[in-house]
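User: Could you check the structure of this?
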Amino acid sequence: MSRKHFGTDGVRGVANVGLTPEFAFQLGQAAGRTLKAHGLTPRVALGRDTRRSGPMLGASLASGFCSVGVDVIALGVVPTPTVSFVARTGEFGMGAIVSASHNPAPDNGIKFVLHDGRKTPDEFEAEIEARLSESSGPRPKGAEVGFLESDQEPVEAYVAFLESTVPERLDGMRVAVDAAHGAAYRLAPLVLRALGAEIVVVGDRPDGVNINAEGGATKPQTICTLAREVRADAGVAFDGDADRAVFSDAEGRLVNGDRTIGLWMRHWLEAGKPMNRVAIGTVMSNGGLGDFLARLGVRLERAPVGDKHVADWIERFEAPIGGEQSGHIIFPELGPTGDGLATMLQVLRILRREGRTLAEASADYEPWPQKLANVQVRDRATWADGPMVRRAIEEAGELLEGQGRVLVRASGTQPMVRVMVEARSADLRDRALEGIVRALLDEAGGRVFSEVDLTHALGD
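Assistant: Sure, the predicted structure tokens are below.
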């Protein structure tokens, strides 16, 4: 079965235009029927971020579930990983999140996790889509109608779980926080204060339309400036639904997901923690991370882009950590999905254990020069058919053999080809990139839409 509505992370669109309350109701019905068809507990944990459209879409989604006999527990404004935690620790068949993550406020989205807290697999989402077109059939009535209620006790359990992950506490540490006016605006300061940290917070006054607007994980200059101004031991920024976190040291230097993985692996290997010497990145993870991990005796495995794939590869290789440059980090001993608050606490715990600031403890490696070119083409299905393009990619591979990587892939949504090249030197990187881009322009048509140096950026 194919998927029309679900993308890499649920369903997204402009709220009340592309993603309407009518569709949310139908999606709730289809997801509820799919849940029951699999024999899962007919009970759903529902959370949302701070967008103005969240209550509207959440109410419609909940009504859809209830109309097919599925109970809904509304958690209110909570991070996506909170819903994952509640789903896997309580009597739930599924969790549902109304959020468009790092997208601007007019957008919104709906995504699901199963009873084990993992993102719903593609096959499950395809089943939901297939049921969207089914006739409604007999409706439950009386006591069989699903019941909607609010409950904060599961959220309190999540907070207690987070606090338990830092037995050393954080007394006296100064932490700068950018909550992006998103789902972490209340819980992140609450947890940090409970653990004894001194905090300086921005992005904690959501008004329904300012989510991700002034900072957050996708605009790290805000946290980098704040951490430098207040001389923080560490600064942390979340995205809108708080399933990712990126950091800044007191010098205003970005610490992305790659460096977070390196920092975590180095510390726990030196501490003698028993674990497999393998970490999961993605095809976009910087070669500098691979070099750094190799010096630690750790193998870097590269999954396709997307936290679902990272989670699958963590399970496949029994890895203790995996993640993306963008700050989606998964610690399987803590949970099966990215959790920005857990990632924050893991980094701060390491700083407390080492008695160092983030500037002193950041993984000691230099990223390889890395650049991404987005090239518009006539047809993203046939761009690779011509001999010039094929030969240019081959020549780039030969040029970079043992010294770098080339990744060329078509966009899934736009008539565009993305060309990522990294190498041990910027000159080598640029020579390889130039040859491929020139061939695409000459043979596949179009223009260079953008070119971004990813060396110290967020990548995914």
